[in-house]
Target: GDSL-like lipase/acylhydrolase family protein
Amino acid sequence: MLGRPLLTTSALAGTLLLATAMLSGLAAPAQADPLPPTAVAMGDSFISGEGAGGYVAVTDQSGVAQGFPGWSAPNSNPYFCHRSAHASIQVADLPGITQRVNLACSGAQPADMASASSARPAGRTVAAQVDQLREVARTGDVDLVLLGLGSNNSQFTFGGVAAECAGRFVADGYTGWWEVWIHFVNWVTGEELNERACSDADFATAAQLQAARAETTVAVRQVLDVLAEVDADGEHRVVLQDYTNPLPPAYAEQYRTEDGRSDTRDKYRALVDERYAAGCPADIDTLAPAHRFSQNLGGLVAGVASTLQAERPGTDITYLDVQRAFDGARLCENPGSPGNALATPLRVMDGPSGVHVQSFGPYDKLDIKRVTDTCQSYYQTCQESWHPNAAGHQALGRCLSGAWTARGATRVSCARTSAGSIVVQ
Model:
């Protein structure tokens, strides 16, 4: 019989398989590109990049990007969150991460995680950080969250403590006991200035630290809840970072006395001028309590991490201890400060001029009152003081890199060696 030859059984099966594969290929829906692996910074000034310069525009609650508004603008302006292009989240070596987003805001408190910062006194007009995180998760696969909270809360703030202790030192050096009639105003509280060195209680009491830890725990728990909600693959690491102290355990010899006077004297103007120029205007007797305060902040953050690690054993949470990351490179730890330090010097302006006063040498006590009042009226003119500078954030970036690559670690410690290298353990 004439016609097409019959297919063998094996040939027919092969043809059917080929046809099925072709049809399947045609019918398969197009696959969307995966979201880019993303690292997100959340929290306060030590995370935002305060002190590092290169600040970028920040979007306000209405969705408008706010660039630099001028030095005399209200401090509530989102720009003064000071999100820096040099912040540790931006400069850290993070293998596998292709997108980095900074949501942190200088001065942020635990309440700002779930509520708009503008909802509290002295806040900024930015949305709640967890709401900002939700937006990031629409276009990025959040694999890493660097979170720094604790130094600002309803009990105390880092900026308030710093200004108080520096102000006492300056006032004591410029005003003798026989001049107490001079109306020397504390630029933080507006009250007559206490001239004693700061004590442990001036930084934070045990009760205040306990309350701050409770607030911070609630806030981090809120961040974890939102992460569980928005991260589709459920794979992310949360790094809780603590704080570095910008001041040394002891001053270098040249910053201890000046013109034959120490800070135990009634007046020591030359010493005030010297320490201010070097970036460390504070009493020697303030240094030990300041370091105990830093240790207490470390204990606060470590406690929050331990609590949440126990609550959520399936969540990847790492406590990053950076308290020794600036060892040997703090302000006035060596001659040549502040140029050789990893922290910004304490600086004020003579009015909202944009020019920091580098030396108190030409100033008398009434001039000092005027420039410190500028900090009170326009906090943005001095808020960079005693924060990590760009080089400091490079060091903190190496700490973060170590925490990111230490898979499964619940705690990572970071320290600077005498040779200047960063060691992560």
